[in-house]
Specification:
The structure is a homodimer. Chain A is α/β, with parallel strands linked by helices. The first copy, chain A, folds into two domains: 5-127 and 321-333, Rossmann fold (3-Layer(aba) Sandwich), CATH 3.40.50.720; 131-315, Dihydrodipicolinate Reductase, domain 2, CATH 3.30.360. In chain A, 30% of the residues lie in helices and 21% in strands. The first copy, chain A, contains ten helices and 13 strands. Chain A has helices spanning 14-25, 60-64, 75-87, 110-113, 131-141, 163-177, 209-222, 256-265, 283-286, 317-333, and strands at 5-9, 32-36, 45-48, 51-56, 68-71, 91-94, 123-125, 147-155, 228-232, 242-250, 269-271, 292-299, 306-313. In chain A, the strands form two sheets. The first copy, chain A, has a seven-stranded mixed β-sheet, with helices on both faces. In chain A, helix 1 crosses helix 10 (317-333) and helix 5 (131-141) packs parallel to helix 7 (209-222). The longest helix of chain A has 17 residues, at 317-333. Chain A is globular. The termini of chain A are close together. Chains A and B meet through strand 8, helix 6, strand 9, strand 10 and strand 12 of A and strand 8, helix 6, strand 9, strand 10 and strand 12 of B.
Chain lengths: 347, 347
């Protein structure tokens, strides 16, 4: 098996940090790791366990020396660096939304549509953190019956907006508790002890970009361009872990017990669903966990062929870094990462 | 007009406190006010503005001396005191869920079904705090088109569980921020920086009592026993103000602009819906406000005859005490509070 050289762009961010950690935690095979940061962080070091890794500038030369480039920064960074990395012969696995809807770019959750990796042309996108758990659940359930409609409302944590947002929640919470003044910076309004029905920009339709990502990305991942989906995305004062209240309509009537059994057997999905013992997925319990968690599974009272449920996942892991890393693992397994650098780094 | 004598049961609780305050704030006409508390609070005093009112024991004698009894305590208190109050000739306006689904008890939001007051037999129930804003919105929209289905997911504040829950959120939040231990008391799990998809007891169907209240109470209030509704009720770390993501299906296609206009003209409803200026209802902004607030109104992307929107209201006001008081105001206006005590307290 090829032992690739990897670079991570954005290793100081919430997602990048988790990604560096996961590379070691999952013993991802690499022969070299390079970390590329913003101007501000170049020259600094990132600690992983007992190691310390220098942060470098992202250059065409650096990209030429690696096989895989993970981009865990915003869309702008991705827009400027991805073409350089691809031209340098590396495969880019991008966590940003920049290329997700590009028809030449596969948008992949390995458990759902790993097959789409076969069509990649150098760039592979990893989905939005609220799309991933939904798409995984829908895919797992589609073997029971075709799905005709999905309504989802989210309860998203601040870590989805990065480390400064987590700091803002901490600071504001302290300020509110001590009757101090609150000055929102990351969010347009106070997030402490509040609920903001506003994530990302608004469109003419009244939907936000985050809500439309859930619609369009889910359709692309599931290869169901006509799937009816509606979403309301809401930020709540939780540090890590996105929750989703989901209402799914099927073509045929489905049995709750069957649904539980099927979800339990699905890779990457855990069912936590025992109301008697007050067991259901909670954001504070899934933090640091790899799976997505499903509970509160019940017949939808408003539709004979409907189901309601509650999903929670660590948005920094399966919602972001873990999925990106699993894409790389899948590429390796498929033998799709070729040693384009002409170096002998086969094991 | 009759100037009634009123009693409030539960004046030290979150809802009761607001109710006492509102009686003065709205200049509700009363000739006497009596406050009845639990064993623990009897003999103490409640301050309202510059007044101080003694807390007494609820007795048949006390109830005989008043015309209206507001019960702002739990179902158990209501179960034991309501028959006594009614037998004493007083009209009971009950905030608990105890009698809401009783066919002889009108369940009333004055703006929606004030007419149901005509059938009361001594007890009138006020709906659940998450039902009221939903039912008001659905009623206001029903003049545009019949409504065929409703899916709602809630973001409920801790004040819905009373003052101890507000204290628990405060304490736990401090504990988490200072890396201390968290010991849940009011809730089954930590509420600070978390989201609990569990409000009230679980039923065999997988739904909670809170979710079923939203279903059955809405149907009763709207006189639509067959209305299809599904709800997921979630507690989030917000002090006051319940939010709801609502997806409504109509029999006919509706226009967003028309919906905004109709809601704006509806009594008790304010529209805050201008994404360009980041204006949408927020719990921290509706605290202490009487209206229910609607925003994020848009076509539902998953249904051609559907609408999505975001509701927020002060659960202690319109969701509880204000509605109870408005029921009393409506009874007075209709001349339905008779001086059963034989005393001359007409103005």
């Amino acid at each position: 098996m090829l032992i690739p050289k990897v670079a991570i762009v954005g290793p100081s961010g919430a997602v990048g940090k988790t990604l560096v950690q996961l590379l070691y935690e999952r013993s991802f095979p690499f022969s070299e790791i390079r970390l590329c940061g913003s101007e501000r962080s170049i020259g600094g070091e990132i600690s992983v366990g007992d190691k310390s890794i220098k942060v470098e500038k992202a250059t065409p030369e650096l990209f030429k020396q690696v096989d895989i480039v993970f981009i865990a920064a915003g869309s702008e960074v991705s827009r400027s660096l991805t073409p350089i990395a691809v031209n340098s012969g590396a495969i880019v696995i991008d966590k940003s939304s920049e290329f997700r809807m590009n028809k030449d770019v596969p948008l992949v959750i390995p458990e759902v549509n790993g097959i789409d990796l076969n069509c990649h042309k150098g760039i592979i996108s990893s989905p939005n953190c609220s799309t991933t758990p939904l798409a995984m659940t829908l895919k797992a359930l589609s073997c029971i019956s075709p799905i005709t409609r999905v309504v989802v409302d989210t309860y998203q944590s601040v870590s989805g907006s990065g480390l400064p947002a987590m700091e803002e929640l901490r600071t504001q919470t302290n300020d509110v508790l001590s009757n101090g003044n609150v000055t929102p910076k990351v969010y347009p309004h106070q997030i402490a002890f509040n609920a903001l029905p506003h994530i990302d920009d608004f469109h003419e339709s009244g939907y936000t970009t985050e809500e439309l990502k859930m619609v369009y990305e889910t359709r692309k991942i599931l290869h169901q361009p006509e799937l009816s989906i509606s979403a309301t995305c809401v930020r709540i004062p939780v540090m890590v872990g996105h929750s989703e209240a989901v209402h799914i309509e099927f073509k045929r009537s489905v049995e709750v017990e069957h649904v539980r059994a099927v979800l339990s057997k699905s890779p990457g999905i855990s069912v936590v669903d025992d109301p008697k013992t007050r067991s259901y997925p909670l954001p504070i319990q899934v933090e640091g966990k790899d799976d997505i968690y499903v509970g509160r599974i019940r017949r939808d009272k408003s539709n004979a062929r409907g189901l309601a449920m509650w999903l929670v996942s660590d948005n920094l892991r399966k919602g972001a870094s873990l999925n990106a890393l699993q894409i790389a693992e899948e590429l390796l397994k498929k033998g799709m990462i070729l040693n384009k650098k002409g170096e002998n780094n086969y094991a």
